[in-house]
Amino acid sequence: MFIINCPYCGERDQTEFSSGGEAHIARPKQPTELSDDEWAEFLFMRKNIKGIQFERWNHSHGCRKWFNVVRDTSNDKIHAVYKMGEKPPVNK
Amino acid sequence: MSQELRINNNKFIDQTTRLSFKFNGEKLYGYKGDTLASALLANNIHLVGRSFKYHRPRGIMTCGSEEPNAIVQIGNDPSLTDPNVRATEIELYEGLEAFSQNCWPNVKFDIGGINNLLSPLLPAGFYYKTFMWPASFWEKYEFFIRHSAGLGKSPTKPDRDIYDHKYYHCDVLVVGGGISGIMAAKLSAENNNETLLIDDKNILGGTTIYQNNDCFQIDGIHTNYWLENEIKKIKNIKNLTIKTRTSLAAYHGYNYLLAKENLSDHLSPDERKNKIRQRLWKIRAKKVIIATGSIERPLIFNNNDRPGIMLSSAIKKFIDFYGVKTGKEISLFTNNDSVYETAISLKKSGVNIISIIDIRDKSSSKIVKEVEKHNIKIYWNHTIVNTEGYRRISFIEIMKLSDDGSGVIGKKIKLKTDCLGISGGWTPMVHLFTQSGGKLKFRSNDNVFLPDKNKTPSDQISIGSCNGDFDIKDIILNSNKDVKTFLGIENSPFDNLKVESSREEMKRNIWLLPSDKPIGKTKPFLDFQNDSTAKDVKLALREGFKSIEHVKRYTTTGMGTDQGKLSNMHALGIIAETTGTNMGELGTTTFRPPYTPLTFGAIVGRNVGEFFDHTRKTAMHNWHVQNKAKFENVGQWKRAWYYPKNGETMFEAVQRESKAARESVGILDASTLGKIDIQGTDASEFLNRVYTNAWSKLAVGKCRYGLMLNEDGMVYDDGVTTRLSENHYIMTTTTGGAANVLTKLEDYLQTEWPELDVYLTTVTDHFSTISICGPNSKKILSKVIPDLDLSDENFPHMSFKNSIINGIKCRVMRISFTGEHSYEINIQSNYAKHVWELCMDAGKNYNITPYGTETMHLLRAEKGFIITGQDTDGTMTPSDLQMDWIIGKKKFDFIGKRSLYRSDTIRDDRKQLVGLLTDDPKEILEEGAQIVEKLNQKPVEMLGHVTSSYFSPNLNKSIALAVIKSGKKLKGKKFFVPMENKNINVTVTDTVFFDKENKRLNA
Ligand SMILES: [Zn+2]
Questions:
Q1: What is the CATH number of the domain that holds A31?
Q2: With a cut of 0.90, is the ipTM above it?
């Protein structure tokens, strides 16, 4: 059970957060322009990496803010935490 | 029989406090400080249970948590009895009652012992191979297995004990209070670290605290005296918290550890009253020092499981710590030096040692020389080939080993003995280390798996014998050095200690010791609790099981409550040897938490009964209770379900309520609906994007029903939203969806549309909602709020007014979920019960009828209104629900819009919502029942299912909603709903059954 450093509240137990899956998947600005395949790519396709993964987390039992986390899924080590809209502080 | 094997003069046992206890009904005595095991042994009782499969007599084998045999049931109170307790761990108290578990009718005559005679027929995988077929026999097999394989009895009544949870944060956690743990705790705490030291025993000091032997000295005194002194000193360190009787159960990532503290298991029932039984510690430590020690390995030889055969280290602890002789004529059997320490302890206490059998050629270490001085017969290069004695070992047979150790030679020697101490070396306890994510490496000279320093998480170390140091000199030197480095300490009081020890030089290891009989005729037990032998492992390998995890499951080796603490290494060794693999490459099985079993009580703590989950009650809850409402759980909410009167059944109550709501007036507590306050200059635009229909043109003071989709186009939630002012809306959601809708809206707002000026606040609990519906609702409201103009011109359907009731501000919406003329009063929750009672008063002359969720569901079904989550299941689009009218086709975008014309969502054979009428109007369908077209088809094609079904008192017939493939095109078509004993004929209809023209809304 890991500790997440919420960029708004500080270090909190994992139980206060909920995971929102892979980060940096922007919702298309003009969905109607997309083919079925392109829309399906956005809608369904997610990576499941063993190693460094960029994820969204929500401090659901705290400040309710969404933010990004860089986590090594093989050992749960969190390498960085950054706000929505910010560039990842480590190379993607 | 009165503690005939007790010796006097022992400082760990309080011989002035005699305690009585019962074992299998027999009254016995022990002393304060005993465990159940040591007290039994003092009374010369070894036989404590029967083995799992063959029901062989088994005795106490160890003195700790690795005990495989002495597993007992404590007490027989149906709410407090405790199964699977290790006799070696439970401390004796006055009045303790224990029972052997795995034997019937009793431990001395056990009917299942017949399995032992049948054992050639019970090989590895026997249960898998035999009880697989025929399937119809399974119930009989299960009965047989469960009755013959007793693993204790569960309590049958609720647990009366109190359990507790505690959160704890510290700089350094030291696990294990042996010599290295004590050193680490002292170094840590004296260097400004808030330190917690835990140990599972009642007395600190591990095995060193009773190591009173000339060969082992620190600064000129015996190690036990040196350590005793250190323990005295650390008790005064301010930064150090010490918890004994506390065992570490699990080591999770980020140094999150769970430990169980026993607070009253060692007290008599009288002393326990009103005390907490166990406390689960949830520890976050910045750094963790693991000093969990090691456990001795058995040796694997023919008939190595008889009562009286014990680990040599256990014999030593029983004599040195508990003052109990485990036998009168003891033999020792070893492949290393540690039994020689036991020999000296026994000699000191005047126990007769028959012989030492050592599989090594020789050993000339200091301790062996010391033993040789006592004229004890040592058989070098010998092994035990057989043992005798049914309920207690009586003889051993020994022979000389061949040069390569694979066979035996020479003459068989038979020796009389009533207790045999065995030692196959030591296994570091690396369970916690691996649980935390650390990786092991293999050291081949003494066949141990050790923490790999290069693959250890950075915030922990392992020290002492769990790190592979078995010599006291190494333990002290390395623990001191490693802790200093780990904590950044420069000087330590342990820097210049002079340590004397006896260094072991000779080693020899044979995983499976040979006998003069072939392997097929021998019983070399590997896993004592699960009764698997070396033979079983070899059979599994012959049958093609190669992975250690598969062999484990097939033979059940290592799968008992002891998790194979004794058996795993030998199983690995035999597999490696048989398959010609290197043990290091083979690896170990996964060690999973908990390290020792946890009680359910400790896991749930105080979260029992009404504290198990949060219960949410509306402001009117007590009124519902007083008016005899039955409640249903909706999420965490308690909702009034129906209000039975004069012994009505649920059906009768709901029929009455439903008629009253349509004929006069009904009142519903709708407070549990989710309410989200939405404010900001972009609030309208935001609603436009999250709902399928258009919102920008909704006038202030108006309400609108909205449907919310997931991005995949499937209906997610629905509800009415009201425009309170230019930039202020109040949204309602379903009761169950409230929290998720808010999370989802926040997600879009924060991550996709941060440019929107919108703020969301949940106000579900702040406002309560009273819904008044029916042709007389207007009359009630005009009495409650006389000042409000309720004319259709001023206050039409789907609009809202701010108002005041008795000086209390409220919001009144004219909206309807039943199709009747109705109002919803939203009022600050602390006044809600008062306003509810005003409404009840005002309705007296109109037979105002409180109704619950069941009637609400019935009334809306009459109108064909959906309930998300009941008529939808996450696979229904608005079009599937025949709600195409709510799609804002001209809107540029909204959540899920693009998905509405994916190739899959535009298929016309999707399941679609329809109405369903039974040909017999009295027949009520079951919700969830399947709908089919052809009855004689194989397999029969399921076309859909019933989602809502009621008997409508207002139509005097049964009605239902259902989803059916291509349902939209099937109006008038007939189907079957097959039930267990009949087929019900149904016809597809429109979804609206009642008042199709919506005349009643303005009635
Ligand atoms: Zn936060």
A1: 3.30.2270.10
A2: yes
